[in-house]
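S.,

As promised, the pyridoxal-5'-phosphate run. Input:
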Amino acid sequence: MDTFTSHRRVRLGRREKPAPLDLSHHYSAVTKRRMPSKIKEAYKFFQIPGILNMAGGLPNADFFPFDTLEAQAAKPERWTPSPNHPGETATSSTSSSDSAAATHIVVPKAADESDPSKKIDVTTVLQYGLAAGYPPLLSWVRQFTRENLQQDTPYKGGPDVVLTCGSTDGFSKTLDLLVDQWTEGVNDITDRPGLLCEPFVYTNILNQAQPHGVQVVTVKSNASGMAVKGPGGLEDVLANWDPSKGKRPHLMYTVTLGHNPTGIVLSVERKKEIYAVCSKYDVIIVEDEPYWYLQFPSAAVEEAKSRGLPPPTASTTPKSARSSGYPFLDSLTPSFLSLDTDGRVIRLDTFSKTVAPGCRLGWITAQPALVERFERINESTTQQPSGFVQGLISELVLGSNSSGSNTPNQRARSAFALLRSPRERAAFTGWDTSGWVRWLEGLRGTYERRVVRMCRTLDAGATLITTAPAPLSSRSDPDSEWAPLAVTKTPLYTFRWPRGGMFVWLRLHLETHPLWQAACPSSPQSPPLVLDGPALSAALMVWLTTKPFLVLVATGSMFSANDEVRQEDGWRYQRICFAAEEEGNVDLAAERFVEGVRRFWEVTDVEVVRKLLGELGPSGEVEALEEGVSSLGWYMGC
Ligand SMILES: Cc1ncc(COP(=O)(O)O)c(C=O)c1O
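Predicted complex:
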C-alpha cells in the first residue's frame, strides 16, 4: 500500500471529514519560490474606514472617465427551460409574457456601503484590487460554489475559489502551479512531465501544455468516457509506466460534462473508478467544465425514438446528501469534487458559455492550499480579471444589494428609471442566485431543443439508400421483363446523440466511399496520392464549404491528442457544433450537411478530390471561406 492510500484509510476511519492532503510535493520549482506580493498584502489596510492612503500607486478614482457602468441585460426568464428528467415538465415556469424585456443594471460611481463584499461601484471596481477577485463577486462565486454547486465536497472545510480570466487562464495557471519546464537535450528524459487525457481533447490544452515540454499521454476511451481497466486504460498506463519515457504523469486533464469534442457525460460510477486510480498513483485531476449546465436529460430517450429503438432504461442521477436548493442543479451529474477525499481535484469554471466568452472571467475551485498558490500566481500575472467585467457581472448576479432607497446606487437607478417606460422601470434590478440558476436552466433548454432537432436530421441522413436492377443470377424468373430492384444501404456516418455540451461527434464511414484507396495523380514528379482516410476526410471538409452546401465543420484530426491518434483515428471523425448558428439556421445547417455528405459519396472522379485537397493550406486546414458558409465547426479551436 503506498503512502497516499494509507493516509487516506487512516483518515477515513474517523467520523469527521478528513483534511485535504498536502500536495506541495507536486508544486513546480517556480511555485515553491513564489512569495506573496508585498503590495497586495497591504491591500487589507486600504479598507480601514477613514484611512488616508499614501502607500499605493493608485490613480485617483475621480479621474476615471466613467461615472457609471450601465447595461440593458436579459431577464433570467428569457429562455424556456427543459425538464430535468425525461417525461417530466420543466420545474421552473416557462418564459413569462415579457421575457424578452430587459432589465437595467447600473454600477454607480461611488456606493455608500462600508462592507467591501457588498460595495459595487466604479470607484472600487476600476481600481487595483485583490488578486483573488473583486470582493462582492468573489464572495458570491464562493457562496454559489460552496452552497449550490459543490455543497458536499468530502474534505474538511470544503474548497475555496479564486477568480480567473476564464478557463484557458485557469489551465495556464495550473501548469504554472504544477509543471516544471522541460526541454529536450537540456533536461533529463526521466524528468519529463506528463499529462493524462483522452485521445481526443480540447485543442487549446495541447497548445498550452506542449511548449512546457509536457508529454501528452493518452488513455483509451470508449463511448462512456476514459477507460479505467484493460489494455491502454488508466490503470494499465500508470501501473506499467516506463520511466525511460519520462516521469509517470502526475496530472490528468478531463472535461466530464459535455466533453469537447465527444459530447460524453462521464457517469459517477466511472468517476469513482478514475478517482480511485488517481488517488493510488497520486495524480491531480484537472476538471475543466465550461459546459457544466448543458446536460441533456432527454438525449437517450429522443435518440431511441428517432432510431425506432426500445426506450432506454431510466437512469437516475445520484443525489448529494445535501440539496443545492435548486432541482436543476441537483439533477446534474456530480463533479469529481464530490468524490475528492484527498483534495486532488482542481476544477475550472468559466462565464464564457453562460454569459459570454468576451468576459474573460471564470474561477478555480480547489482545496484552500492550492487556491492560495493560485492567488500568488494571479498577483504576478493577470493581477485580477478586468474591472469592467467584474463590475457588470457583480451587478447582474447580485442586483441591488445595497440597502435603503437613498443610496447612490438607488439614486442612479431612479434617475435612469425616469427616462424609461413603466415596464422597464419595473424590471430595474439584478438577478440574484435564483435568477442566475433560472438563466442557466433556460440556456440548457434552448440548447437541448437545438440538439434534438439537429440530431433527428442527422439520423435521417446517416445512410445512403440506392437502388439498382437486381443481378440476373438473383432473379427467380430471369426471363421476366420486370427486373426487381436491389436496395443497397451504405452507412455514411454513425454517432451517439450528445449527452451534454455543444457538439455532435460523428464517425464517418469513409471506407464505403467509391474512391476509397483510389490512386490520385498529383504532379508528374511525385508519386500518385492514395485517397486514404485522411485525404478523403480533408476533401470532405472542403467540399462541404463549397456551394450549395456552405457549411464548415471541424475534423477529428484537429482534436487528436498526438500524431498516432491523428493518423489512426482523427480522420474518422467530424465535430459539429449546434450552438453557434442562429436558431433559425440549425435545421438549414444540418440539412445542408446531410446533403453535402450524401453528394460527396456520389463523387467518382479523382480529379474532383484532387482539386478539393489543393484548397487546403499548408496546415491542412481551410484557409478562406466562401461567403455565406454556416459554421458548424465554430471556432475550430474552441
Ligand atoms: C473544454 C474547454 N475548455 C475551455 C474552453 C475555453 O474557456 P474560456 O473561454 O473560459 O477560456 C473551451 C472553449 O471552447 C472548452 O471547450
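The pocket of pyridoxal-5'-phosphate is lined by residues 166-168, 202, 255, 260, 288, 290, 350, 352, 357, 362, 638 (CB under 6 Å). Residues 462-486 form one domain.

- D.
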